[in-house]
Amino acid sequence: MAKKCDICGKGVVSGVQYSHSHRQSKRKWAPNIKSIKALVNGSPRKINVCTRCLRSGKVQRAV
Questions:
Q1: pLDDT tens across 24-52, in order?
Q2: Which of 31, 35, 39, 40 has the least C-beta neighbours within 10 A?
């Protein structure tokens, strides 16, 4: 499953993680993506959506 939201385009972000002794290591932050069945142009389709888009009501779930 792709780690990208089909609605808002939110994806993986990379950065640097610092330990207590301030040593650096690269890491990634992945969004909370769910694969749901939603109405797209009036027909049900499976899409990958972040939980923020689900919660805010940007997506209408297919029943």
A1: 999 999 999 999 999 999 999 999 999 99
A2: 35
Q: How far is CA 58 from CA 6, 7, 13, 62, in A?
A: 11, 8, 22, 13
Backbone phi and psi for residue 17, each to the nearest 5 degrees, phi listed first: -105, 135
Rg for the chain, CA atoms, rounded: 16
What architecture does CATH give domain 1-63?
A: Roll (2.30)
Amino acid of residue 48: N
| CA 55 to chain centroid | 12
The dihedral region occupied by 41, where left means phi > 0, alpha psi between -120 and 50, and beta the remainder, is left
Query: Could you tell me the two tokens for 16?
Result: 């640097």
Q: What sections of 1-63 are H helices per DSSP?
A: 51-56
